[in-house]
Structure to design on (481 residues):
């Protein structure tokens, strides 16, 4: 009996001192805090694209006799996920939110493992900052952005398997499979191909290993071909080659139906690309802008743009000084589809949104922590704690914005009171909710508050907003007769 008790005591002591147990407690505690942080979003209602591209899509919400229906979508596995989850849960929206949050937690664990494999400093801090970063809120809380989360999930798995493949070749097969799945959920992971090539150059001197990159190249080429030849991207390409192009769709009302109307969009340019890159880099470190919709950047520089640009130049000097350009370049590669290189509407440099940062966010956070780690000071831990507390606070505020569609656009309009696109979408949201009087008031207030604004008048959505106002007034007169 004494021997048994002695053995149990030894086991308990090992349990208490085990690093694995400490890690488990650390991760579970972090996830519980994350769950509490996102609790409000778990009851959020559908927002804009959730309605248009999921819950009102007859193909995704009804039984299909065509077995290969999902191949008609640009991202077939995302469409398959949407249809499968709808068949399970229908309009029980909390289940979609719970699953998105669960996958975000899994992604955070993958970020930790990647940080360990690449020997980035302070992997647990990179994990925490990614888990609680306010730029992740839109990807987690907006149901349609499950495509972004799944794309990250399988891209990260592909990357980890590729690292193992450099030692044991059998892992390359699984890496190729995960890369294929990632591209079938969203095309944003195409730049991973170039990172894998650079990684192979850096990690090995065996030429035969480069043969394993050929399947990645073929899959990436197919994904890029599908993306570049999709109708939406073709419109973007036309926009890039002409002064104006029918490149976006606005919504107007006629009778009891919502109709669409083509509008013109400005070209993207080098200035827009620079502004967008500087925005995302600064947003990683100092996420002050937490409103859901950022909208389009224009070709003008205001005070905030100059601040971000100067911050980027200042940061680049120290990034170069401390030998961190490789990490910075990796982040830029992952962000490249959203910098105007692929000029598709809502993916180009003219449309800025924090979900575009999701894939590159861990790399930029690793850059931030590596930079802090290089500084000779005793305040490193204090700085990281302050960053974490600031991120948690900003995320707690941001989660309030995803309660419903009206809140989503109302708060966005508070962040940018001159944004015509947001005002239009807010009015349409009230129309969808059969609150036509409120929609009229939104447009009226917006036009009065921005009376004489050159930015408003020159916005491509401005004529559409006026036509929507006229349509609402006409319907109101008909209803009052």
């Amino acid at each position: 009996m004494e021997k048994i008790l002695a053995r149990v005591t030894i086991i308990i002591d090992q349990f208490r001192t085990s690093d694995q147990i400490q890690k488990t407690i650390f991760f579970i505690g972090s996830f519980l805090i994350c769950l509490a942080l996102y609790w409000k979003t778990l009851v959020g209602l559908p927002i804009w694209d959730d309605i248009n591209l999921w819950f009102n899509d007859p193909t995704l919400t009804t039984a299909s006799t065509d077995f290969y229906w999902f191949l008609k979508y640009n991202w077939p596995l995302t469409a398959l996920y949407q249809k499968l989850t709808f068949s399970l849960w229908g309009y029980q929206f909390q289940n979609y939110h719970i699953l998105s949050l669960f996958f975000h937690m899994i992604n955070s664990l993958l970020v930790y493992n990647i940080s360990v494999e690449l020997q980035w400093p302070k992997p647990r801090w990179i994990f925490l900052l990614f888990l609680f970063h306010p730029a992740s809120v839109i990807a987690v809380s907006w149901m349609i952005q499950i495509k972004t989360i799944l794309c990250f999930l399988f891209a990260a798995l592909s990357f980890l398997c590729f690292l193992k493949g450099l030692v044991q070749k059998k892992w390359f097969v699984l890496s190729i499979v995960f890369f294929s799945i990632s591209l079938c959920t969203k095309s944003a992971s195409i730049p991973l191909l170039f990172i894998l090539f650079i990684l192979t150059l850096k990690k090995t001197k065996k030429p035969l290993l480069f043969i394993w990159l050929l399947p990645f190249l073929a899959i990436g080429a197919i994904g890029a071909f599908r993306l570049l030849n999709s109708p939406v991207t073709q419109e973007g390409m036309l926009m890039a080659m002409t002064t104006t192009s029918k490149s976006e769709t606005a919504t107007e009302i006629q009778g009891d139906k919502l109709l669409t109307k083509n509008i013109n969009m400005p070209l993207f340019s080098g200035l827009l690309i620079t502004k967008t890159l500087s925005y995302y880099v600064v947003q990683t470190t100092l996420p002050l802008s937490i409103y859901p919709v950022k909208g389009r950047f224009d070709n003008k520089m205001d005070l905030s743009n100059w601040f971000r640009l100067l911050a980027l130049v200042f940061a680049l000097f120290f990034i170069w000084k401390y030998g961190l350009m490789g990490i910075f370049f990796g982040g830029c590669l992952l962000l490249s589809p959203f910098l105007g290189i692929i000029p598709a509407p809502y993916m180009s440099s003219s449309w800025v949104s924090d979900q575009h940062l999701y894939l590159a966010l861990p790399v930029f956070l690793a850059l931030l922590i590596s930079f802090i780690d290089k500084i000779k000071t005793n305040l490193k831990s204090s700085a990281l704690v302050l960053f974490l507390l600031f991120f948690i606070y900003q995320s707690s505020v941001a989660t309030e914005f995803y309660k419903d569609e009206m809140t989503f656009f109302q708060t966005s309009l508070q962040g940018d009171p001159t944004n015509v696109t947001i005002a239009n979408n807010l009015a349409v949201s009230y129309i969808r909710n059969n609150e036509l009087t409120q929609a009229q008031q939104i447009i009226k207030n917006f036009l009065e508050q921005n009376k004489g604004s050159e930015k408003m008048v020159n916005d491509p959505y401005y004529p559409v907003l006026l036509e929507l106002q006229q349509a609402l007034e006409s319907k109101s007169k008909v209803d009052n007769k």
Observations:
- The CA atoms of residues 427 and 439 lie 4 Å apart.
- Strands lie at 246-254, 257-264, 295-296, 351-352.
- Confidence is low (pLDDT under 50) at residues 239-268, 345-349.
